[in-house]
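Run log, item B.
One chain of 103 residues. Sequence copied directly from the ordering sheet:
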Amino acid sequence: MPETAKLPEQCETMIDVRAGVDATDRELVALLERRFGYMRAAARIKPTRDAVRDEDRKASVIAAAVAEAEDRGLPGDLIGELWEQLVEGSIAYEFVHWDQIRD
């Protein structure tokens, strides 16, 4: 986390909280950028369009995120919903990229 953002337990004002949330959001977007880079790599590597959607892998990824969240004391049901959207969005992105690089 950047030096200007305090850790949650160090926050004393809503300005501190909002700066921390904003910094965290920027970090999350950077992580998503990397994750979507892996989707581009998968699209490049997978030999067929049918290989893009893998329901077993999707279920495994979501289950792992829920378990990790619960281990950290976060609401597993909410994380499961977020990951459902993230994984479906990633699959859609991968399909688009798969099609683009093969046109």
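Observations after the first pass:
- The chain has three helices and no strands.
- Helices lie at 14-45, 55-71, 76-102.
Flagged for discussion on Thursday.
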